[in-house]
Amino acid sequence: MARAVNLTPKTGRRLTDSLPQDRVADHVRLLAERPTGFSLAAPFYTDPAFFTADMEGVFGRHWVFAGSIAELPDAGDYITVEYGPYSLIVLRTDDGGINALHNVCRHRGARVLTAPSGTTGNLVCQYHSWTYSPEGELIHASAPGEADFAPGCFNLKRAHAREVSGLIFVCLADEPPEDFDEVSAVFEPYLAPHDLSRTKVAFQQELVEEGNWKLVMENNRECYHCDGHPELACSLFPTWGLTDGIVPPHLADVWERNLSAELSLQQRCARYGLPYEVVEELDTRIAGIRISREPLDGEGESFSESGRRLSKKLLGDLRDFRLGRCSMHLQPNSWFHFLSDHVITFSAFPLEAGRTLVRTTWLVADDAVEGVDYDLETLTHTWKQTNLQDKAFVELCQQGTSSPAYEPGPYMKSEYQVEAFISWYVQRMQEHYA
Q1: Mean pLDDT computed over 166-182
Q2: Residue 101 in domain
Q3: What is the pLDDT of residues 374-398, one digit of tens each?
Q4: What is the pLDDT of residues 65-105, one digit of tens each?
């Protein structure tokens, strides 16, 4: 179910107002000149001015995945989300809603909450004890002889927040993109059977990758490099992204096995009334999406060496462990795997031009018991290793794009989703400058 709880935010000054006009002109020119099917010019990955523009044109205007309701199970629970110059407090209210508040005290700008997560009643700034309600209203700023301003003029600034099928999204724009309702309607039927309202956090990993956020997303959008993921290759077919005409000879047997597993999965989905069809609108709408239910190798149940389940507890009302993975990509910063026994959410939060935080969260059924129903190390092993491998790949690319010898290279046919991501990015930035 989707819920929007917010007051109209005021985003304040434009970040790009501080940029030299020649840097803005360079950005606009390179967006216009970017050849289809090729990676971006070096400044898109390395230039702090271009990073500032990204923070305004993408992360300042579009819906960003912040976390899941499993991270905020009770009223007063909060997480802090940081990207670029922004810091948000995302918290659950007494009525079950979600608020997003800028983590900037209205007195002198101190961070109000400094922990990455926790539980709070009112929000108290540690500096001078200005105190705010969970709605962001200033309720205490008194001192002897000082009460000469209207507290209502100094509430915490708010961002838009909404929950869809247990996923929490935030948007800093005064008026968020309108097509997110349409996209939500697309993915809700796929996610509903997994029922994130009845899950809990088993583990959360945070990795800072020394690479631009777009390189992180590009790496995620293809499996051309999947030979570098031996643990993942046990269960994820390395033919992902390939079609009949471009399967290399050494993957021919795997391709046939994948086709057979896909047919079997589709029959299971039909039996249980689960949607599985590919919906791919990565660069043809503002809130770009790709979602489908796809088979896994081996036993076809989960991301393990044998493909067998990693938790004994089924999620939601699912009745079968062998349902592969429901895979979803959302622009600009997230991807997900919804399995019968657990869910993994991934979010990329840009920190600087060459640094990105990748947050991975494993969710299991809320009644699953660690050590009885699942082993934590086994549950997380495949994607912990895969994330470390991806971190190394991204950092290799960042080093290369920083070299004077770098020039944009062509994407392979199997990397069409990388092209779609970059196409989406170029469109959004051109709209921003229009």
Answers
A1: 96
A2: no
A3: 999 999 999 999 999 999 999 999 9
A4: 999 999 999 999 999 999 999 999 999 999 999 999 999 99
Note whether residue 249 is domain-resident: yes
| CB-count exposure of residue 400 (10 Å: 0-12, 13-18, 19+) | middle
CATH number for 196: 3.90.380.10
Does pLDDT of 12 surpass 70?
no
Task: Tokens 């290369």: give the residue.
Answer: 400
Q: Tell me, what's the pLDDT at 414?
A: 86
Q: How many domains does the chain have?
A: 1
17 belongs to a structural domain? no
Is 7 a member of any domain? no
Cα distance between residue 62 and residue 180, in whole Å: 9
Asked if residue 29 has pLDDT above 60, the reply is yes
Q: How far, in Å, CA of 261 to CA of 286, rounded?
A: 33
Q: Report d(CA 128, CA 140) in Å as an integer.
A: 10
Domain that includes residue 221, residue range: 178-433
Largest CA distance in the chain: 81
Q: How many residues does the chain have?
A: 434
The rounded distance, in Å, linking the Cα atoms of 101 and 336 is: 25
Integer Cα distance of 266 and 269 in angstroms: 5
Best CA proximity match to 347, nearest among 57, 66, 60, 56? 66
211, 215, 224, 230, 399 from 396: Cα distances, Å: 8, 10, 16, 19, 5
